[in-house]
Structures are given as C-alpha cells and as structure tokens.
C-alpha cells in the first residue's frame, strides 16, 4: 500500500523539523497513540490502539529515523505487532520545502500488513490508512502552528 500527499504548515522549516523530531509533539498527533518513548537518538518505541473496520488492536512497535538529508529530508522505517490482529511494517520519506514563512511537507509512505488485518480488504485498509495519515498531519500542523502563536 502506498500513500503520498503534501501539507502546508504556517511555520518556518526549522520549527517543523524540530517538531517532527519531538516525541511529545508526535505522541499528541499520532491517532490512538498511548505511549511514545525515545530509546536512542534515532529510535522510538510506540504503543498505539487502532480500529480498522471491525478489528481493533493494540500495536507495539519500533520506529527508526534516518536523518541523513536533514533538515530538508529524512526517512523513517518501522514495524509493529498487534498480536492476533496482525502486524504491519513500512516506512516514509519526508521532504520539507521552505516557502517564505511557511513550510510544505511532502511525504511518500508505504506499508505492508499481515494477519487478520490483511483479510479485511485493500480498499478498507487503504481508506483507513489515508484517514489516519490525514488526521496525523492535520493535528501536527495545528500543534506546530499553535506553538508559533504562543
């Protein structure tokens, strides 16, 4: 499954980049996130509860950041296990483009799922993934823009 989109955030690129690397900001923005812990400079551990159609599962997983292109771009990869509900793994490439006082955030993500979740049908999973990504980035933009005003 592939997801790609872009969002305009009313904040300078360095502020957006810093927020993308702040576990507290990410925890507020990730739908269903119960816990997000920084294990090392490039590793995060997460516990997230998600509902996809009739299946609700608590996932625990790890995310690894690759900041090689920072602050203009970076990548992340992760995997999670939801027990009987299944498992997921994937990654995303994020590009930040400064546009005056604003930043355009572009992302290209892909994910693979297995287990009970994979049996739900690709259309349901794709639409749920798009909704979750949309919620995350809308929430992220709101948090970053709010911090700019404060």
Automatic annotation (TrEMBL):
Organism source for this protein? Palleronia abyssalis
| Protein known as | Carbon monoxide dehydrogenase
Q: Which Pfam families match?
A: COXG
